[in-house]
Amino acid sequence: MSMPDEVPVTITEQQLGELEQRLREAFAAAAQSVTPTAISLPRLAGRPEPSWRPWLPWVRSRRRPWDRRLRLPRLYEQVLIPLAAAAAVTVVAIAMTVVVPKALSAARGSHHAQMGSAPPHPAPVAHASELAAGYPGHRLPSGPTPPYFVGIRQLPAATTSTVSATALAVYSSASGRVVANLGQPSQGRYYQAVTALGGDQTFVAAAVPARGTDCRTWFYRFSLSSRGQPTGLAPLSVPHVIGEIGFNNNNALAASGDGNVIAYLASTCTQNPSSHVGVIHLDTRKVRTWSTLWPAVPRTLSLSANGTLLSFVGNPSSGTGGVWPAEDAVWTLRTDAAPGPVASRYQKVLHAPGGVQSAMLSPTGAITFAMTARTNRRNSAVSNPHLDAYDTATGKPLGLVKVVRYASQNPGFSPDASGQHVLVYPGNMHFIQELNLTTRRLTTVTVSAIPVAVAW
User: Residues of the chain with pLDDT > 70: what percent?
Assistant: First the structure.
């Protein structure tokens, strides 16, 4: 009777353990059964039985030089056969230590996949598996360039609203032209920030009321079709938070690569120039915030792929002094840190002469990409900012990535889900730049409408 090509088999963890024990016992018994007398080497066909055995005492008494050749049979019996037995035992031992564990591990992986759960002890992500050649000791993941990106466009102010009127557009990454527009989520609300949510062309946009009567931010989720058309606009599972997100803070909204955590920066809508950084855990719908004090005005928020580490750029949250671009540094914050003042939770990663303009984390958070200001000594004009890679834990430089040849105060960064590609946008010019962090290739694309914030 013929069997089907594929028969689903369900095996329990207990059965896997019993199978492992039986295999080990069987291999152990096989190893113990191998003895010198159990192994016989084949005799060549047509070779007669040696006839020198009766004359062996006489040969030994003569002690001629050629008697070494007659000692070969004893060498055969006392050396070669035991060596063959030992080699066989070694082969069995190797099979027990290499083949069996791998086979059982594969069986367990298949078992857990069928049960819909992960193995009990998943391998941790190694620090050395992050970035590619050019960043010593690290390697970047690879992925295709996203075909579209989403941008927030500022509209001419037609009302007396306290919030700038904005619109959301979908751009072609290849041509820079607008291929679709997304209407306002509701009357009287304008989009202020947008971020990609995972790697399947899903996005989250933040909107605030046109008039400052309700200090809240609403979140909406939508996707792009294969032709860049926005579909499925709906409120996020956590529909709103306290505070207002503004588009003038580059990357005031960020999401983790796995699509489970969102980070945002919101003002408190008071005369006191303070704000707070928050994270939303979509699986639990819990929100956690950390307060900031002037002159800290965080921008270019970035999350590691698993959402455990947040980075941003800004002045220290000291509560004293003015906002000085030269004091802008890169800070990191654990997203599981207790709520409270950000100054008691964050860590300084990098400060460079002239200040840091923008920064972002690599997928594991082990590397920080930062654009540092280069100023002219005569007129303090910013020119040719450098994008470099740094070790997040130590701040140690890992090498120059690219020199971006345009003058802009604080360009925005927007990485894709893979972390290999990043959009660099000046926010005030008719172009954006697409940078491949692995190859260091920089492509400039002219845009038909200037975006003040982008995501892909």
Answer: 63
Q: How far apart are CA 175 and CA 359, in angstroms?
A: 26
Are residues 99 and 167 located together in one domain of the fold?
A: no
Task: Tell me: pLDDT of 100 over 50.
Answer: no
Residue 105's domain comprises 21-29+70-115
Strand, helix or coil at 294?
A: coil
pLDDT band for 448, please (50, 70, 90 cuts).
confident
Which pair of structure tokens corresponds to residue 95?
């099979």
| DSSP-derived pairing of the beta strands 356-361 and 347-350 | unpaired
Sequence-ordered list of residues with C-beta below 8 angstroms from that of 437, at least 6 positions apart, any chain? 131, 140, 369, 401, 419, 420, 421, 422
User: Does residue 234 sit within a domain?
Assistant: yes
Q: Strand pairing of 189-196 and 178-182?
A: unpaired
Q: Report residue 175 as tokens.
A: 């041509």
The contacts of residue 331 (CB under 8 Å, 6+ apart) are 298, 311, 312, 313, 314, 346, 347, 348, 349
Distance CA(117)–CA(144), nearest Å, equals: 29
Does 175 fall in a domain?
yes
34-39's contacts with Cβ under 8 Å and 24+ in sequence apart are: 34/85, 34/88, 34/89, 34/92, 35/85, 36/81, 36/82, 36/84, 36/85, 37/81, 38/85, 39/81, 39/84, 39/85, 39/88
Which CATH number fits the domain that encloses residue 239? 2.120.10.30
pLDDT given at position 103: 43
Question: What distances in angstroms separate CA 243 from CA 208, 213, 275, 278, one per listed residue?
Answer: 9, 12, 8, 10
Residues 254, 324, single domain; the answer is yes
Section 360-375 average pLDDT: 87
| Angle ∠(206,282,307) on CA atoms, nearest 5 | 90
Mark whether 110 and 178 lie in a shared domain.
no
**Number of domains within the chain:** 2
Backbone φ, ψ for residue 112 (5° rounding): -70, -35
According to DSSP, residue 448 is labeled: S
Q: Is residue 174 part of a domain?
A: yes
Residue 137 has pLDDT above 80, yes or no: no
Q: Which stretches does DSSP call E strand in 272-392?
A: 275-281, 286-292, 299-303, 309-314, 329-334, 340-341, 347-350, 356-361, 367-372, 386-391
Q: CA-based angle 109:111:114, to the nearest 5?
A: 110
Same domain, 435 and 374: yes
Q: Is residue 128 part of a domain?
A: no
Residue with tokens 């500022």: 154
